[in-house]
Design goal:
single chain, alpha+beta, four-stranded antiparallel β-sheet, 1 helix
Length: 245
């Protein structure tokens, strides 16, 4: 009796093969790696942008404080005494002792020092609370101010000592430059008598002074983040040199 072998019917494949699974995983890993690189780049760019903004804001804040205080240089509680005597016993008007500005160099960096009056003048006793009269003497402990760069820190002179104006934990000042420009304005028309020949002090001159300041800062957490700021300011209190005869 002949026997017949019956072959089983060919079944349809279900799922994916191992090769297709490996290819899919590889493609997925490439996509995830690209997305990760993109996100990492965006985070790094955002961090850099935040550091740049912080450095720029810190430089602007320090510059604004410098300008605000520097404009007070030479301020005098009794400016009228520079042109007239308050009493017949005074021989002549007195000069403004706060008008001088010192610009020196220390370890290759400028040191700008100036002064202004912090007293209020009174010619006669007033009711309490009384105020200190103008003594026309520059007090080293209360009336001397300045700026300098030391150890990457911009410092402000307040009296006899310098105090940090910038925070070294977030900002490092790498450059601090100051240029003082002077322009003399001759005041010959204010003299009643003509000046004698050879008299260098006559006629008087009004010294117009302007400061050009530049600051360069570096982020403490990223040395590649560097920003600079430049500012210019004219002193409000001009210095008078010389006198009429």
């Amino acid at each position: 009796m002949r026997q017949f072998l019956v072959r089983p019917a060919k079944t349809r494949q279900r799922g994916i093969s191992l090769i297709e699974l490996m290819v899919g995983i590889t493609v997925g890993m490439i996509v995830v790696a690209g997305a990760s690189l993109m996100m990492t780049g965006q985070l790094a760019e955002h961090r850099r942008l935040m550091l740049e903004t912080q450095v720029q804001q810190d430089l602007r804040a320090a510059a604004d404080l410098m300008l605000r205080d520097l404009r007070r240089s030479g301020s005098w509680a009794v400016p009228m005494r520079g042109v007239w005597s308050p009493s017949p016993s005074d021989a002549a008007p007195i000069p403004n002792v706060y008008a001088d500005v010192s610009l020196t160099q220390m370890q290759g960096s400028p040191v700008l020092e100036y002064s202004y009056s912090r007293h209020q003048d009174r010619l006669s006793p007033v009711a309490p609370p009384a105020v200190s009269p103008e003594d026309n003497i520059v007090s080293s402990s209360t009336e001397r101010f300045g700026f300098k760069l030391e150890g990457g820190i911009l410092k402000f002179r307040l009296g006899d000592a310098y105090q940090p104006l910038t925070d070294p934990n977030t900002l490092r000042i790498t450059a601090f430059n100051v240029v003082m420009n002077e322009q003399a304005l001759v005041l010959a028309e204010f003299c009643d008598k003509p000046c004698q020949a050879g008299n260098t002090a006559c006629p008087p001159r009004q010294m117009l002074r302007r400061f050009d300041i530049s600051l360069t800062g570096q982020a403490a957490h990223d040395p590649e983040v560097v920003r600079s700021i430049r500012l210019s300011s004219r002193m409000r209190n001009d210095q008078i040199q010389g006198a009429c005869q």
